[in-house]
Amino acid sequence: METQPAETTLYSLSDAPPSPANESDRRTGERHMTLYRVGSVMLDGRRELCLIRNISAGGMMIRLYCTAAVGTQLTIELKSGQPIRGKVSWIKDGYYGIEFDDPIDVIEILSASMNGPRPRMPRIETDCHAKLREGANSLRVRAHDISQGGAKLQCEMAIPCGSDIVLTLPGLEPQPGVACWNNDGFTGVTFNRLLPLGQLVEWLKVQREEQAARRPAAKSA
Fold first, then answer.
1. Cβ neighbours of residue 53 under 8 Å, at least 6 residues apart?
2. How many C-beta atoms lie closer than 10 Å to residue 215's C-beta?
3. If residue 49 lies in a helix (H) or strand (E), which one and from where to where?
4. What's residue 204's pLDDT?
């Protein structure tokens, strides 16, 4: 049975707003089921719906169902009722880049989702080493993003689709699952059981602290 990859809203801990280049990271040649988070936009005194593709501390990439020019001031409200002010910074292929007036706390938004309306399987951008076990093979991989239901991994060896795997991320219990797709050195895995959102949020807090601790060392090098 062919597994259809799911494209969901991608959250990033980066301070930079998404750029048009992010749109090119689709796995070409594959069909996608889109499950983007829905938001609403207030501009020119009216409310419009939008689909949120990427969200970072500094901005969003959205699909907007009306027209707006670069520089347009607007307010985006998530389902959790959090209004965020910003402006249109670029437009490309029907997508709008939004730069926030002030940075937001992405982890706080995810934490609020535990008590309010939840985005469907949000993916969170990450960059950490992990271990993947498939049969007798034990591989060192890099996790590019993670959700409650799975992860996207950079892996030198193609893992056959349908293979049973165990993914071990630093600070989390080993997660058994199944390899579901391979493309251009990346492998997608689906976990057998969902990670609790609270556990994922706490893990992200640790990842953010570790990233912040590495930045001064990188600047002084």
1. 9, 10, 18, 22, 23, 36, 60, 61, 62, 63, 95
2. 9
3. strand 46-55
4. 86
User: Pick from 106, 74, 104: which is nearest to 91 by CA?
Assistant: 74
Buried b / exposed e over 90-114, threshold 16 CB at 10 Å, is bbeeebbbbebeeebebbebbbbbe
Predicted local distance difference test score (pLDDT) of residue 158: 86
Give me the count of residues in the chain: 221
55, 19, 130, 198 alpha-carbon torsion, rounded to 10°:
0
Q: Which two tokens stand for residue 66?
A: 């009306």
What are the average pLDDT values for consecutive 10-residue runs of the chain, which has 221 residues?
62 86 47 67 85 91 90 84 89 94 87 58 83 93 91 91 95 94 92 88 84 64 52
Segment (H or E) for 58: none
